[in-house]
Amino acid sequence: MSGKIICTGLGPGDPDLISVRADRLIRNARHVAYFRKAGRAGQARRIVEGMLAPDTLEYPMEYPVTTELPVNSPAYRSALASFYDDWAGRLTDLARTQEVVVLCEGDPFFYGSFMHLHARLQGQVEMEVVPGITGMTGCWNATGIPITWGDDVLTVLTGTMPEADLTQHMRTADALVVMKTGRNLPKVRRALAASGRFEDAWLVERGTMPGQRVIRLAEASDEDCPYFAIVLVHGQGRRPETGHGGEP
């Protein structure tokens, strides 16, 4: 019997936003793996609560570090590399005879942890990736404002970037998304102010999930910003005048 690994994108957090294909695969799965922080249930597992069959075998992949070390430190990189190497080997062994579904929040190929496994599993085992709605998509829809218009260029940044780099990119962006905000929010706030974009910025916490909050960044506190938070600046590009038609 030959198996495979199927990574299913779960979308931004609301179980109703899981694709029909991912839903079917998850409900029929007998082996399910997912990432989580040690001691936590895990966001991916929370999203699929009530969907797994009673006899499903679960494989929690617990990160050895999350925010305990600087992300650019050699110790952090070494710990994560060993973690991904280990799980790539374990999943490869399991997938020789079984179909394994790996859960991934958002879209697996958009800042998803599965990418690190995918790179290690290439050529070792059959794989399939099921796309998911990205977290940022859920967040900008939560604001009720289109993120891009006409010829706007969308720039996606991560809050882990150096402040000077954030500022430089923000100055030239039309529409702007900052991922991985959380404890980086004070730095993101300073970069937005330096680039002249601060007054137009929004903060969306836990987009599409329970406890969702949508607020102007200027009205938000830096304290207790959750991990699942995204900063947005909407584009203001070319659009037809209201009531006059014109080019879309």
Helix content: 25-40%
Radius of gyration: 20 Å
Number of strands: 10
Strand content: 15-25%
Q: What's the oligomerization state? A: single chain
Description:
- The protein is of the alpha/beta class and 248 residues long.
- The protein contains seven helices and ten strands.
- The protein has a five-stranded parallel beta sheet, with helices on both faces.
- Strand 8 and strand 9 form a beta hairpin.
- Helix 6 packs across helix 7.
- The longest helix has 22 residues.
- The chain is globular.
Could you write a compact summary of the structure shown?
With 248 residues, the protein is α/β, with parallel strands linked by helices. The chain is built from seven helices and ten strands. The radius of gyration is 20 Å and the shape is globular.
Give the arrangement of secondary structure elements:
Blueprint: E1 4-9, H1 20-28, E2 31-37, H2 43-47, E3 57-63, H3 74-95, E4 99-104, H4 114-121, E5 127-130, H5 135-142, E6 154-158, H6 163-172, E7 175-179, H7 185-195, E8 201-205, E9 213-216, E10 229-233
Parallel strand pairs: 1-4, 1-5, 2-3, 2-4, 6-7
Antiparallel strand pairs: 7-10, 8-9, 8-10
Helix pairs in contact: 3-4, 6-7
